[in-house]
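Hey, can you fold this?
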Amino acid sequence: MTPTLVRQHPSHAGTTPRVDLRARARDWSEIQERMLVPLYEAVYERLDVGGGTRVLGLGCGSGLALLMAASRGAAVTGVDSRFPERLDLARRRLFPGTPDGHGTADTHARADAVRVVEGAPRDAADPSLPAFTLVTAFEPIGCLAGDSDGLAELLAQATPLAGRGAAVVLAGWGPPERCATTSVLRVATKLADPLRSAGSWRPALRDDLEEVAQRAGLRPDGSGRVACPFGYADTDSAVRGLLSTGLFDAAIAATDREQVDKELAEALHPHQRPDGTVWMPNVFRYLIARTP
């Protein structure tokens, strides 16, 4: 039997929570990732993603957005440096029928159409391939203080790989009053507060995306809002899905998993329907910018 991969996360509170990263990656791909499908669809439809599109997906995770672009005929490359377990799932999705997710001779022959790279955007550079025509950063910002800082660096590495005038898409949380999940995310801040160095929740600001684009030297070229409700089969599924985002890691480090599970379940209670399902309407915003 293959041993379960467990990674230890350092805790400023003097404890070391143990996280089963394979289980978390499965929860992400099976429960949480699909919540942003309306966002992916809206962007791809607006930009007419298809056979002539070359997509570079930043923070691609387990690859659902890449798979959707590939199904429209686009050539896709995904990069992620934070979640190798999610990347394993992305490879299995994008190279079906290969147990290790790394492909066979046939899949390697189409490596110019489908690529998954563990590392930074610069690691996806390949002078033998055409420039990217679309760069996506679908992980929404505007949830934790400072959560856009790393994005600017990713864009700085990614934009030189894109052609002149290529589209770059950034995503963010909508106004708190239109995001029911806001009240649930505040649990992370409340429990993590003793960790002064941890990020804290803050509402999304109107110009978050524009500021990131400006820092990256990009030119805004349109925006939109998309309804992305978070729906779960039950409270347990909702807790697992939300924990898979990593947004509650500081809270777990400050207290413990049991406490976080309990308070998350309580915060989800107002969103539970009579049939036991959990439903939280949300609105996300996206910005389309252009490379110089």
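Oh, and this one too while you're at it.
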Amino acid sequence: MQEGHPIAFESRKLNDTERRYTVQEKEMTAVVHCLQVWRHYLLSSPFSVKTDNVATSYFQTQKKLSPKQARWQDFLAEFDFTLEYKPGKGTVIADALSRKAELASISQAESTFLNRVWKGLGHDPTAKALVKLALEGKTLRFWVEDGILYTKGRRVYVPSYESLQRDIIRECHDTQ
């Protein structure tokens, strides 16, 4: 977070072995993963890692370590950071993406977004050309489904229409 706003999110799936970890080990797996991803930003400056798991906040002072935990501590020794406990109710922003109740409200806004995309497809010349190619079967990279243009990875093609692209970026990056 920077000035009270999240500036980046990182996630990945746990593999089969990691799914059997304790809650503290899962939390430390996430911390280690994020530090590996953002290592080049974090090595030269002090920072804090906030966790909603009390046991995780004591990881750096833990006496008995498993071999896995010893590897983690060895890696973490490169960084100048503190692990801080922050109760779950104080981590609303970070938890929002992992809580199904909050995601239910996000799915209601999806239809408005898709309606704007659908409308924009008719106004963007590039999108019109891609839709035509897809409907004629002349491209494998794009296809039309329910009036929406998709590309590889089942990603929605966002047309250049009014302020749609900017609005999507703002929605994904602003927290207010």
